Amino acid sequence: MSTTTWRDYLALTKPGVVMLLMVTAVAGMFLATDPPGMVPPHILIPAFVGLSLAMMASAAINQIMDQKIDAIMKRTEQRPLVAGKLSPRAAVAFAVALAMLSMAMLYFLVNPMTAWLTLFGFVGYAFVYTLYLKRATPQNIVIGGVAGAIPPLLGWVAVTNELHPHAWLLVLIIFVWTPPHFWALAIHRADEYAKADIPMLPVTHGIPFTRESVLYYTILLFVCSLLPYLTGMSGLIYLLAAVILGAIFLAHAVRLRFSEDPKLPMKTFGYSITYLFVLFTALLVDHYIPLYPFIV
């Protein structure tokens, strides 16, 4: 085994994924302020750290459980456990330490509801999805998406200690976003998933069916993304951003459906990440800079 460095522990936590999820969690915190204002630092700091640690622990457990699969797939063959840069025992100890510290911070420094909901998401992704759903059904991403969609709810509850309907709208958007996001990647990596015996949709139902599914879910996502405006949660700035971002996503999905260009799946996958980041940024901008005072 090669010498272990802090970068190996960082790679174990999937920092890119955690960063995107934390954008939605932080958005949930600030969107929960009514009237719009600053999240109190004594809530913001422990909530940010606690949620980050929980997501890092969940990602680490995912890699620990998926070592055999990761060794088969080109996309994951350089992960620290597969490459022998980190021992399974060290990885487990690290993940457990992150999870315990996270739960303690959220329970005692934020509120118990946030801690219990975070635990639900942690178990749902790290164990239910990774150990069972991923290997059991082509709908693994859809069902398991519930656990991955709750970060904005966690952020909201950290501030308000309540399950507000607007927070659930944010969860819905991410839940519907997840299938077209991940299935685009799965189309590109279909042969690797088949080799690893993972029943992703392109493997079990074929790539043409998956292309159609991406399009249908993208249409559904476009509709769901309008709900914050239609329910009065957000204003015209958000509406404009949602329509433009959704139209671009639809254009990607339509091209993916009707074109055989091998570059399109990864282009769609890449844009889906940009879509979610910019959409939640638009929610925040709209929350703090409403357009109506400037309309005469």
TrEMBL record:
<keyword id="KW-1133">Transmembrane helix</keyword>
<feature type="transmembrane region" description="Helical">
    <location>
        <begin position="86"/>
        <end position="109"/>
    </location>
</feature>
<protein>
    <recommendedName>
        <fullName>Protoheme IX farnesyltransferase</fullName>
        <ecNumber>2.5.1.141</ecNumber>
    </recommendedName>
</protein>
<dbReference type="Pfam" id="PF01040">
    <property type="entry name" value="UbiA"/>
</dbReference>
<comment type="function">
    <text>Converts heme B (protoheme IX) to heme O by substitution of the vinyl group on carbon 2 of heme B porphyrin ring with a hydroxyethyl farnesyl side group.</text>
</comment>
<feature type="transmembrane region" description="Helical">
    <location>
        <begin position="140"/>
        <end position="159"/>
    </location>
</feature>
<keyword id="KW-1003">Cell membrane</keyword>
<keyword id="KW-0812">Transmembrane</keyword>
<feature type="transmembrane region" description="Helical">
    <location>
        <begin position="214"/>
        <end position="230"/>
    </location>
</feature>
<feature type="transmembrane region" description="Helical">
    <location>
        <begin position="268"/>
        <end position="289"/>
    </location>
</feature>
<dbReference type="InterPro" id="IPR044878">
    <property type="entry name" value="UbiA_sf"/>
</dbReference>
<feature type="transmembrane region" description="Helical">
    <location>
        <begin position="12"/>
        <end position="31"/>
    </location>
</feature>
<feature type="transmembrane region" description="Helical">
    <location>
        <begin position="165"/>
        <end position="186"/>
    </location>
</feature>
<comment type="pathway">
    <text>Porphyrin-containing compound metabolism; heme O biosynthesis; heme O from protoheme: step 1/1.</text>
</comment>
<feature type="transmembrane region" description="Helical">
    <location>
        <begin position="115"/>
        <end position="133"/>
    </location>
</feature>
<keyword id="KW-0808">Transferase</keyword>
<dbReference type="InterPro" id="IPR000537">
    <property type="entry name" value="UbiA_prenyltransferase"/>
</dbReference>
<keyword id="KW-0472">Membrane</keyword>
<dbReference type="InterPro" id="IPR006369">
    <property type="entry name" value="Protohaem_IX_farnesylTrfase"/>
</dbReference>
<feature type="transmembrane region" description="Helical">
    <location>
        <begin position="43"/>
        <end position="65"/>
    </location>
</feature>
<feature type="transmembrane region" description="Helical">
    <location>
        <begin position="236"/>
        <end position="256"/>
    </location>
</feature>
<keyword id="KW-0350">Heme biosynthesis</keyword>
<comment type="similarity">
    <text>Belongs to the UbiA prenyltransferase family. Protoheme IX farnesyltransferase subfamily.</text>
</comment>
<dbReference type="InterPro" id="IPR030470">
    <property type="entry name" value="UbiA_prenylTrfase_CS"/>
</dbReference>
